[in-house]
From TrEMBL:
Signal sequence extent: none
UniProt xrefs under Pfam families: CHAD
Species assigned in the record: Streptomyces antnestii
Record's compositionally biased regions (Low complexity): 41-50
SMART domains: CHAD
Name of protein: CHAD domain-containing protein
Length: 352
């Protein structure tokens, strides 16, 4: 992707003021979202639950932006203060995300099971194929006796769905309880106090770099990480039948998702840096970011299916259905990688 030209607002000496203004804005949003979360009472169901979830999302958004800004523009800020606050914000954001992630993962997996075991399920197509269904993921390649495999999948899908619902609902309930406890802890109150101080007083130090240099460095790190990805392999599907058989034998292949997750993080930092540099600029790389979000969701859903398939003493049909589900989600991973490749190359052409 070609380097974008970043304009530095104001003189170099104003770089700290620009970052401070952005941090104050995000800290104010954090405190506003925290008040809304407390007013909703942390409910687990009903209208109040929707308000709680929205307030938690807003809290996470502002926490991520503050943390990302502290990372990218660290030379402009007091290093001891920023290094102490960043991991606490990461803890808070991750803790608040867990309940939502478990719920979304369960919804995704149950929808996939319903699609895969339905009467109109079709074989997986290689991503990027010229066929009409190339970008739609269907059921994994079944064994040679397709009629027998279809019946086995139909029988196992209901039990597989019930198993996933038990496991992920329990995990969601625990995450909800953990979040409520954390939001009442001294650790959280210390984070909230630090952000409250940040809303009025940002600890700066004499500028050692300007905004353009620091934002460009974030973009360079992203570009280098994308260059290291095997983009030429994006869209080549896994051997789905081997995945199904491997899971039922309790041996799952390595996924090698970590470099893609790292690029997702760097892309987020790059986008936040762009917000600091020019708040009125159009959102950069939104299509690529959405593809990496889908990649993360599919990879974690596949891992959840694999975990469920290793539950002791489950029926062979249930294990088979979970293996098919795992293979389906791994194909979704490949589809997301292919979508990211196309979005990234398209952005490179658009930004000379």
């Amino acid at each position: 992707m070609a380097q974008q030209h970043l304009e530095t607002p104001g003189a170099e000496g104003c770089a700290g003021d620009v970052v401070a203004a952005y941090l104050r804005e995000q800290a104010t949003e954090f405190l506003r979202s925290l008040r809304q979360h407390r007013e909703s009472g942390g409910a687990a169901s009903g209208t109040a639950a929707e308000e709680t979830a929205e307030a938690a999302r807003a809290l996470r958004r502002s926490a991520r932006r503050v943390s990302g800004t502290l990372h990218t523009f660290r030379p402009l800020l007091d290093p001891d203060w920023s290094d102490a606050l960043r991991p606490e914000l990461a803890w808070l954001s991750g803790m608040l995300a867990q309940e939502h992630e478990y719920a979304a993962r369960l919804e995704r997996l149950l929808a996939a099971l319903h699609r895969l075991s339905g009467p109109y399920a079709v074989p997986l197509q290689p991503v990027g194929s010229s066929s009409a269904g190339a970008e739609r993921v269907g059921t994994a390649h079944a064994p040679r006796n397709e009629k027998s495999a279809s019946g086995q999948l139909t029988v196992g899908a209901a039990k597989a769905g019930a198993l996933l619902e038990r496991q992920l609902t329990l995990a969601r309930t625990r995450a909800h309880s953990t979040a409520l406890q954390a939001l009442g802890s001294s650790r959280f109150h210390a984070v909230a106090d630090s952000v409250a101080l940040l809303a009025s007083d940002v600890p700066l130090r004499p500028a050692t770099a300007d905004l353009k240099t620091l934002a460009t460095a974030a973009q360079t790190r992203l570009t280098e990480a994308v260059t290291a990805l095997p983009l030429h392999q994006a869209g080549h599907p896994y051997n789905a039948e081997a995945l199904v058989q491997g899971l039922t034998a309790d041996t799952a292949p390595p996924s090698q998702d970590a470099p893609w997750h790292h690029v997702r993080l760097l892309l987020r930092l790059h986008r936040y840096a762009q917000e600091v540099v020019d708040a009125d600029a159009p959102e950069a790389d939104a299509e690529a970011a959405a593809a990496l979000d889908r990649h993360r969701d599919a990879a974690e859903a596949a891992a959840a299916a694999a975990h469920a398939a290793r539950t002791p003493r489950i029926a062979p049909a249930t294990a088979y259905a979970l293996g098919v589900l795992h293979a389906d989600q791994r194909h979704e991973v490949e589809a997301a990688r292919f979508a990211f490749q196309r979005a990234w190359l398209k952005e490179a052409v658009r930004t000379p």
